Amino acid sequence: MPAILLDGRATAARYLAEVKEEAVRFEEDYGRKASLAVVLVGDDQASQVYVRRIIRGFTDAGLAAEAVALPADIDGAAVIDRIGALNADRGVDGILLQLPLPKGLPTEAIVSAIDPDKDVDGVTPTQAGRLLLGQPALVPNTPAGGMALLQAYDIPISGAEAVVVGRSAIVGKPMALLLLAANATVTLCHTRTRDLGAVTRRADILCVAAGRAGLIDGSMIKPGAVVLDFGVNSTDAGLVGDVDAASAREVAGYLTPVPGGTGPMTNVMLMRNTLAAARAHRRSPR
Ligand code: NAP
Q1: Is 237 helix (H, G, I), strand (E, B) or coil?
Q2: Of ligand 1's atoms, which has the minimum distance to the CA of residue 215?
Q3: Best substitution site from 44, 191, 208 to test ligand 1's pocket, by max atoms within 8 Å of Cβ?
């Protein structure tokens, strides 16, 4: 039997309905919309499209979002100054920094300049540390969306063998930590993993975030496994994931389509984090 598709669009739409209600409540309580600033350095076309999409989504959901566009030749100190201004701006609840930054900019210093309370993508050392320690945190949106999809489809996580392919700070590592927090037994794979297929075939839950089209095919998947494909790869055949969908569908029990799987969940998790950050700011006297 072919895999059941984990429908990110339909699941995100249900979350979006809740976000819209919470956005109205926030505006009633505080007389303004919860708001996000998206910092975009340089003129990468794909990033510009992505940022415009975020802003449109926020506006449609009853939230505010603005793009802060900075030139590609800006120096690190000037980016940090701009982030400092957003940190101090009481009208800004969340800051999303588009990564990767243009080469030559000190990414670590710039990321660390974001006020952790406004870090709605969980990239600062403070938020990443809270996640590691199991403390309440603003969790990176993409893995948060993956977990929400698993929950939406009642996938049992406790005690499951989970394998995550990819160890980036924004997807792989936080996904592994979230699965661990949900009591899965977690293995984290990367480019030095020996015999990747032997490891992935152990997985009841297989999460792939490598950025390599078709890295995982059906022969590397345990029959009946749940497969979350975070990959987004632009190919001649259009957007494809890291999982070869045709062969995976014949083996997996559940599979996220690309597009329409993990992607839509990411956007709605960003809205939830922005609302959570906004509520937390309003509680703390500054
Ligand atoms: P990244 O920073 O480039 O990290 C890729 C990771 O995959 C690295 O840890 C790398 O290992 C590992 N990897 C690469 N090739 C591998 C191979 N052949 N075998 C095993 N491991 C391999 O990428 P990222 O930012 O995490 O993004 C990953 C993918 O997710 C991309 O396609 C990106 O576009 C997509 N993405 C999707 C969403 C969404 O909303 N769905 C959001 C963010 C990103 P090493 O550490 O050893 O180099």
Answers
A1: coil
A2: 18
A3: 191
